[in-house]
Specification:
This is polynucleotide adenylyltransferase. This protein is an alpha+beta fold. Helix content is 31%, strand content 14%. It is built from 16 helices and 17 strands. The strands form five sheets. It has a five-stranded mixed β-sheet with strand order 1-2-5-4-3, sandwiched between helices. Strands 6, 7, 8, 9 and 11 form a five-stranded antiparallel β-sheet that branches. A hairpin with a 2-residue loop joins strand 4 and strand 5. It is globular. The N and C termini lie far apart (63 Å).
Length: 672
């Protein structure tokens, strides 16, 4: 089992072997200045925790060794129970393989380990989720043990002596599992069920990547830098339509193939050069696809029509080849290409000694980038329900982004991969909630035109999709809530009071939820970035709360009363004016709009302009934005001098009704 790790700048050595599907762009050897820049890059990355200490690495190796021993013992016990001959029982084997960031050698401090338990043919999957699960339960070092048997890729999740591990299972058509087994052998896939093939795919892809790069140490250091840059720039999330860990690894691997003798500082620069100019949707391939005649579905636009509409295909090198970026949308691709161009400009400056490497890792202020935002809020009464609910909602946010992209008045929708704690309700009932923020760019308005935009359909079809999924998976509970609201840039601090602090924060790490488990494609969906937020104060504010007599969310159960937001916001470059309209929404059944599926690029959906003329509501200049949304004429949030408080309890809470009863209505009026 390989456990590669290095903190040192690799020594350059000339590579003559041909890598990839094309010849190299340059075979130039590094100069002394390149080696100096590489060492500077290493020193710049160290404070971000991307390198693990040797002591921590040894602890991981020890934990994996213990786990490997448990697997061998368990398989031997199963073999004896099934009356296999003693000669077979002694040699039956079994092994733990690793994949993902740990196998690639680019894991960070505190990162989890993706593992695969490989067993011989007489060991059933049911044995893995029963007797092996029980064996793990008996171990003192094992905590937080849970099995997810019905997942797309079934998994056992646990913490082993402080190390988080996800264990998949694959049963091979072999009588014994040899120690020197090479999972890259395509013949191993014969006569396997699809779940075993999915489980094997993570290891097979990772091993192929390492086999296809000219210099593994240069590849690893470059990948560490690119992953850190992507996380800092909020474009690291497979689940939300950006790229996950394996996709970033394949882009870096392709760069290494094109510049086989370059060191990390040069490779980082060439990475941005290559992919800022890449002609998408031409696919990124590390090797020519192979057909093993096993009749498994592979990515092939010549055969599969839906593959022709993938926007940013990056194809895994192991059979069956798949597109690891099928979640990418027009917006997320545009955002990433723009980031590639900015990265190229910065690395040009760095290599000319006009800037330091730290500039590349400066986090842009997402909350100053756009003038309009949509905030999603998902809440549930218990922590367990909240984890399940947030995982489901997050896995479907890309559907909302797709809906917004189809709106004829929207140019771009940018979801921030970081989630934030939601506002606390000022009642005695405990609730757990999470927020996501989506930046919106509207088409510019010409002349004196005024435009009414209704996003109700886009929002409601998204919530309906989430609702149906929750019902079909028998996960939905009556108290689970999902709400959307429109917020302008200058009001974001009301929802996220620590915005001013987060710009230069580099303290600690925050782990995003990664419950949409598709480890066959990408096991590294999570975002670990310096924490932008702290846990808000739970001190209740006596302003806009559930119990407030004027608040629309304090109503008794019955027909849902919703704050119907009709914002006269500004188009890009236009001055804002604001009106608000209140509407009462009766019980609304979920619409029958099917969730978006991959197919030909949809034409822009015509917006639904509002027919009624919004009535302007007079108010005191002392009324804050949030009380104004709630139709209060006297501000209950602001102190007497008119300065807004920074406590999250100032934020009006969402309606109590479940999403099936609430029509999330967002209407905007854009004018110059």
């Amino acid at each position: 089992m390989p456990f590669p790790f290095t903190n040192q700048a690799p020594i350059a050595q000339q590579t003559t072997r041909h890598y990839g599907i094309t010849s190299a762009i340059s075979l130039a050897l590094p100069k002394e200045a390149d080696l100096v820049q590489t060492q500077r890059l290493i020193e710049t990355m160290k404070p971000y925790g991307v390198f693990e200490e040797d002591l921590e690495l040894q602890h991981r190796i020890m934990v994996l060794g213990k786990l490997n021993t448990l697997v061998k013992e368990w398989i031997k016990e199963i073999s004896e129970q099934k009356n296999l001959p003693a000669s077979v029982t002694e040699e039956v084997g079994g092994k733990i393989f690793t994949f993902g960031s740990y196998r690639l050698g680019v894991h960070t401090k505190g990162a989890d380990i993706d593992a695969l338990c490989v067993a011989p043919r007489h060991v059933e999957r049911s044995d893995f989720f029963s007797s092996f699960y029980e064996k793990l339960k008996e171990q003192e070092e094992v905590k937080d043990l849970r099995a997810v048997e019905e997942a797309f890729v079934p998994v056992i999740k646990l913490s082993f002596d402080g190390i988080e591990i996800d264990i998949l299972f694959a049963r091979l058509a072999l009588q014994i599992i040899p120690e020197n087994l090479d999972l890259r052998d395509d013949a191993l896939l014969k006569n396997l069920d699809i779940r075993c093939i999915r489980s094997l795919n993570g290891c097979r892809v990772t091993d192929e990547i390492l086999h296809l790069v000219p210099n593994i140490e240069n590849f690893r250091l470059t990948l560490r830098a690119i992953k850190l840059w992507a996380k800092r720039h909020n474009i690291y999330s497979n689940i939300l339509g950006f790229l996950g860990g394996v996709s970033w690894a394949m882009l870096v691997a392709r760069t290494c193939q094109l510049y086989p003798n370059a060191v990390a500082s040069t490779l980082v620069h060439k990475f941005f050069l290559v992919f800022s100019k890449w002609e998408w949707p031409n696919p990124v391939l590390l090797k020519q696809p192979e057909d093993c005649n096993l009749n498994l579905p592979v990515w092939d636009p010549r055969v599969t029509p839906s593959d022709r509409y993938h926007l940013m295909p990056i194809i895994t090198p192991a059979y069956p080849q798949q597109n690891s970026t099928y979640n990418v949308s027009a917006s997320t691709r545009a955002i990433m290409v723009d980031e590639f161009k900015q990265g190229l400009a910065i690395t040009d400056e760095i290599l000319q000694n006009k800037a330091e490497w730290s500039k590349l890792f400066e986090a842009p202020n997402f909350f100053q980038k756009y003038k309009h935002y949509i905030v999603l809020l998902a809440g549930a009464p218990t922590e367990k329900q909240h984890l399940e609910w947030v995982g489901l909602v997050e896995s479907k946010i890309r559907i909302l982004v797709g809906n917004l992209e189809k709106n004829e008045f929207i140019t771009l929708a940018h979801v921030n991969p970081q989630s934030f704690p939601g506002p606390k309700e000022a009642n005695d009932k405990e609730e757990h909630s999470t927020m996501w923020v989506i930046g919106i760019v509207f088409k510019k308005i010409e002349g004196s035109e005024t435009r009414n935009i209704d996003l109700t359909f886009d929002i409601q079809s998204f919530t309906d999709t989430v609702y149906r999924q929750a019902i079909s998976s028998k996960m939905f509970e009556q108290e689970m809530k999902l709400s959307a609201m429109h917020v302008k840039k200058k009001q974001l601090h009301q929802l996220l009071p620590n915005l001013k602090r987060r710009k230069h924060s580099t303290d600690g790490l925050r782990q995003m939820n990664d419950s949409n488990l598709d480890l066959s494609i990408d096991s590294d969906n999570s975002m670990s970035v310096p924490s932008p937020t702290a846990v808000p104060s739970s001190t209740p504010n006596k302003g806009c709360t559930l119990g407030h007599p004027h608040s629309p969310v304090g109503a008794s159960p019955g027909p849902a009363t919703v704050s119907h937001i009709e914002a006269t916001g500004e188009a890009e470059g236009a001055k804002p004016t604001v009106t608000r309209q209140r509407s009462i929404t009766a019980t609304v059944p979920p619409s029958q709009t099917p969730p978006p599926t991959m197919g030909p690029p949809a034409t822009k959906r015509q917006g639904s302009p509002t027919s009624e003329t919004p009535t302007k509501k007079s108010r005191s200049d002392k009324v804050c934005y949030l009380c104004f949304v709630s139709n209060l004429t006297v501000c209950m949030c602001l102190p007497s001098q008119g300065v807004s408080t920074a406590d999250l309890s100032d934020v009006p809470v969402v309606p109590k009704s479940p999403i099936a009863l609430v029509k999330n209505s967002i209407k905007l009026r854009l004018s110059r």
